[in-house]
Amino acid sequence: MSLFFRDLKLSVRAGGGAMIGVLFFMTVVSVIPFGVGPDLNLLSRIGPAILWIGALLASLLGLDRLFQAEREDGSLDLMLMHETPLILTVFVKCAAHWAATGLPLVVASPFLGLFMNMDELAIGATVLTLLAGTPAITFIGAVGAAVAVALPRGGLLVSILVLPLAIPVLIFGVSAVYAAVEDPAPFLPSFMILMAITLFFAVIGPVAAAAALRHSAD
Amino acid sequence: MRLLVEGLSARRGEDLIFNGISFSLAAAEALVVTGPNGSGKSTLLRVLAGLLHAETGRISLKDGPAGFEHPHELSHYLGHRNAMKRELTVEENLSFWQRFLGNSPGGSGLDPAAAAAAIGLAGITHLPFGYLSAGQQRRMAMAKLLVAYRPIWILDEPTAALDAGADRLFAGLVTSHLERGGIVIAATHQALGIGQSKTLQMTGFSH
User: Which residues cross the membrane (chain A) (predicted)?
Assistant: First the structure.
């Protein structure tokens, strides 16, 4: 619990990078209308997909620092030694990371949805799927961050490692939004699968990340 | 309580960096590990702290509190890096570690303000850790040893970057920890000035 608040504090202090993800998200989504042109129907059709892609890339942005910063100042050593299960420590760090970087993306998405000429239903569905899906990206990312913890320039490597695993999240997130907007397709099945993916990685992610951290110790 | 180390060896890359290290430390005993650079002092301490795997040998604890199989669960490890966040204030850093580490059975830690006073830096705990000088940062990292109670202290070059006054202060901290029945294992180049202690001379590479 104290770890959760400490990590939140760190991410909002100078150099913490909580707002970097949101700024990146806004940049990506707000240039799309200029690139695509003033075709409102086209914009509202691709809107959910653009929001999801933007959110996915933005949440990958700060992941490499998740454990690297702890390793550089020696805090990771003390966490590895402590009798609290490392899995729990990793889980709490992921939760704090999501609250600092994932949650702002979810909050920003309705405003960016207006840029994309999306109606209320589509915006609502996007917010809901992002809320359910972005934790999965953080948990998957924790594994990549733990594997690359000892590498000095691991940032891009983490993204490349993580992206294939995050693709299902993107697919089911976007398809749930389209299912909500277009009549014949049902919303719930895709959304349930998205939730299942999140819960699955909430269990697997910390276990794998903890194992990777133990072996990276030097 | 008794810390037993038998026939310990560890590998760095291809070569054994040390082997056949055995010692036994009872409560209130200190071990000073000396040796030239690269002789494996830090590696030995990291093996004792459970951060590296030993190639062979055993580390065990006799007559310790129940429920602790590995001595590292009862240890403080002060490495080369201070394990404090530059962005947080000293007070926030110390109280985080206090809550995160918790106390081992048989003792309790000081609160952060008292710990800062004990290392002679009371009154600057409201500053971000990154604002302090290297020596002050090192002393604050020592305050971390005081906020949560651990019977075993594993210290890697604890007095690097410290002035003579802080050296004496630190010797006082170690002595009072020993008087309370603690165990101290320190790797150092300088004399710690803690009176009676066992010494272990590391010789370096063996092929």
Answer: 12-36, 42-63, 84-107, 127-149, 156-181, 187-213
Residue A207, domain extent: 2-216
Cβ-nearest to B83 among A2, A74, A83: A74
User: What values do phi and psi take at A70, rounded to 5?
Assistant: -70, -35
Residue B199 β-bridge partners: B32
B76 bridge partner residues: B153
| Burial class of residue A120 (count of CB atoms within 10 Å of its CB; 0-12, 13-18, 19+) | exposed
pLDDT per position as a tens digit, B124-170: 888 888 888 888 888 888 888 888 888 888 888 887 777 888 888 88
Q: What is the pLDDT of residues A30-75, one digit of tens each?
A: 898 888 888 888 888 888 899 999 999 888 887 887 888 888 888 8
Unique residue bearing structure tokens 């951290």 = A213
How many other β-carbons are positioned within 10 Å of the β-carbon of residue B175? 17
A45 touches chain B (CB under 8 A): no
List the single residue in A with minimal CA-CA distance to B93. A6
Cβ contact, residue pair B52, A73, below 8 Å: no
**CB contact (8 A) between residue B87 and residue A83:** no
Which member of B87, B97, B100 has the closest CB to residue A10? B87
**pLDDT surpasses 70 at A217:** no
CB A54 within 8 A of CB A25: yes
Q: Could you give the CA distance from residue B186 to residue B154 in angstroms, rounded to a whole number?
A: 6
Mutation target among B43, B76, B78, B87 for the A interface, most CBs of A within 10 A: B87
Measure A130 CA to nearest chain B CA, in Å.
30
Overall domain count for chain A: 1
- The CATH topology of domain B2-201 is Rossmann fold (3.40.50)
What is the distance between the alpha carbons of residues A90 and B156, in angstroms, rounded to a whole number?
26
Could you say which DSSP state residue A101 is in?
A: I
Q: Give the domain ranges of chain B.
A: 2-201
**Partner B, chain A 189-218, Cβ-Cβ below 8 Å:** 217-218
Which residues 6+ apart lie within 8 Å of A27 measured at CB? none
